[in-house]
Write a structure and sequence with these properties.
two-stranded antiparallel ribbon; SAM/pointed_sf; single chain; DNA polymerase, domain 1; SAM; mainly alpha
């Protein structure tokens, strides 16, 4: 244990005089979940945060870096994707189908009705 640096998230607990002091780690507060709609409002519209939030709501947030890296940085752009675009980015086939089904629900979706199904 480094005597010169102590983590900020610890506090000392002294039990009885003459006994050693021990440190108890205080856990950080849990993150507050934020919906894609609130994220979109926070950044002033449809953008990267909307894409990240939308993927998170699908349970597929692990693909957010790939979407942004390949230039799919707005829901408007994402709505124009095809299933091949997802596979090119390395999205697993089952996940690509899940995303593609939800893409058809976005306004301006390629081959979809923007609120309708496949």
């Amino acid at each position: 244990m480094d005597a010169y640096k102590t983590p900020r998230d610890t506090r000392s607990v002294v039990s009885t005089p003459g006994r050693s002091t021990r440190k108890i780690r205080t856990p950080p507060p849990p993150p507050t979940p934020v919906s894609a709609t609130k994220q979109r409002e926070a950044v002033g519209g449809d953008g990267e945060w909307a894409v990240v939030g939308w993927l998170g709501e699908l349970g597929l947030g692990q693909y957010a870096p790939a979407f942004l890296e390949h230039g799919w940085d707005s829901l408007e752009a994402v709505a124009a994707m095809g299933e091949d675009d997802l596979l090119i980015m390395g999205v697993k086939a089952g996940h690509a189908r899940k995303i593609f089904r939800r893409l058809s629900m976005l306004p301006g979706a390629k081959g979809g009705k923007g609120g309708g199904g496949e």
